[in-house]
Amino acid sequence: MSSVLISVMVGLHALSAAVWVGGMFFAYMAVRPAAAKLLAVPERTTLWQNSFARFFPWVWGIVVILLATGFWLIFGVYGGMGNVGAHVHWMLLLGLVMMAIFAHIYFAPYRRMRKAIAAQDWPEAGRRLGQIRMFIGINLVLGLITIALGTGGRYW
Questions:
Q1: What is the C-alpha R_g of the chain?
Q2: Which of 45, 49, 68, 136 is deepest in the core (most CB within 10 A)?
Q3: Residue 138 has pLDDT above 90, yes or no
Q4: What residues contact residue 30 under an 8 Å CB cut-off, 6+ apart?
Q5: Cα–Cα distance for residue pair 73/91, rounded to 1 Å
């Protein structure tokens, strides 16, 4: 197995995780408080709808890249799940949970928020945005733990 190819796959895997988790960190820790302070619900929910419309396609692509590179490394480099450390098992489990939470965000509260905005039902749009915020907060914590496991877990 080419060490260059392995390095590319590890790099893609790490960059994908960094973009997803970094995007959530920026949204949750910087944009959310600023938007809540400065914008009324109609403007705030519309801002988030437009932001999510640009970020979520990236996340779908990242999910594919993380799964493809992760499984390629596990099975192509290490020879299967039985040959990797517990940190990889935990990283995979948390990553799958994060992907399920993202899919829920996308297909449930985000879809309902878009419908509420289209109908100018601002209280409902704000409620759905609150649900999205909660799930992104959960995913952010899981993502930070997953990155810590992926980068330092083999030494624990």
A1: 18
A2: 45
A3: yes
A4: none
A5: 13
Of the candidates 29, 27, 63, the residue with the CA atom closest to the CA atom of residue 48: 27
DSSP letter string over 28-83?
IIIIHHHHHHH--HHHHHHHHHHHHHHHHHHHHHHHHHHHHHHHIIIIIIS-SGGG
**Residue corresponding to tokens 């704000």:** 126
Compute the distance between CA of residue 127 and CA of residue 108 in angstroms, rounded to an integer. 12
Report the domain count for the chain.
1
Compute the C-alpha angle 99/105/109, nearest 5°.
Answer: 170
For 75, 106, 108, 137, the CA distances from 28, given in Å and listed in that order, are 35, 17, 19, 7
**Residue 142 and residue 136: Cα distance in Å, rounded?**
10
- Residue 39 backbone class (left: φ over 0; alpha: ψ -120 to 50; beta: rest): beta
Distance CA 53, CA 117 (A): 13
Convert the pLDDT of each residue in 30-54 to its tens digit. 999 999 999 999 999 999 999 999 9
Its domain, for residue 59, covers 3-155
